[in-house]
Amino acid sequence: MDTDSLPLFRPAGPDYRWEGVAHMPYKQDGSAPFKDISRQVLFHAPELGCELRYFEMDAGGYSTLERHEHAHAVIIFRGEGECLVGQEVFRVKAPDLVSIPAWAWHQFRASAQEPMGFLCMVNALRDRPVLPTPDELASLRAVPAIARFLGEKGAP
Amino acid sequence: MDTDSLPLFRPAGPDYRWEGVAHMPYKQDGSAPFKDISRQVLFHAPELGCELRYFEMDAGGYSTLERHEHAHAVIIFRGEGECLVGQEVFRVKAPDLVSIPAWAWHQFRASAQEPMGFLCMVNALRDRPVLPTPDELASLRAVPAIARFLGEKGAP
User: Fold this and answer.
1) Closest CA to A107 of A63, A144, A53
2) Is A50 a catalytic residue?
3) From A8, which residue of chain B is nearest by alpha-carbon distance?
4) B25 pLDDT above the threshold of 90
5) Contact criterion met (CB < 8 Å) for A88 and B8
6) What is the pTM of this model?
7) Given A57, A100, A120, A140, the catalytic residue
8) Among the residues of B61-152, which ranges form H helices?
9) ipTM exceeding 0.95?
């Protein structure tokens, strides 16, 4: 896909989906460290140097707790919830901005009341995310605000 | 500015402005080929390879009619209006997607009723825009839909 082959105009359909954009629900087999989240790649074009994706969690859903070398630039697009970045937890709502630096642990959680969606800009060339080891997770949970954010011990 | 120095969290203030983001109204001296438009650079970080900017026009405002080698990836963020891309005019509203390929003429115009804002993703390394020559403008105006879009002869 490059911008020459992209349609010039792709209208939004109902419920934050777009014409010509694949809607990818994450697989959920019970062991996966995310819940009720979908992904749509809005722009992926080599000459832009980056991609723009739209992630959406159902009410109570959350993204994977992970980190990586590449940075994320995020705009909350609908709804509200919380996010963990590094050692801090923030309450977020549309259209707040969140910057995720290299190697910062991060996770987004929608409120219990409504879906939360965010746009995420990312370099087209990037490394794969890594998940926390049990020791790293224990270190994160040692921070009270993060323990509350992550919820029950069994949850990721 | 890089993502290491950016605050992790920048809350949105009222009226589509953000904490810590400079709001840059364009100068308007009467001869400038744009009207009632402002720019805010939301993310500009070398390691992302790209930038994300938010442009907003007042009701009846419009961006510069221009083209360049670099591509734009656009999401309408608030309001509605029209845009010219190449030889086509589209009615747009939030959150429609618009792709502007290399060297396509483009201009955004807010409706007469309300402001229109859009997010624009762009490569961090890019060429400067060029404006249409009188001959190029005449060629664009030869397309009836573009003549209507551009409005009166005196307007850009």
Assistant:
1) A63
2) no
3) B99
4) no
5) yes
6) 0.91
7) A120
8) 134-141, 144-150
9) no
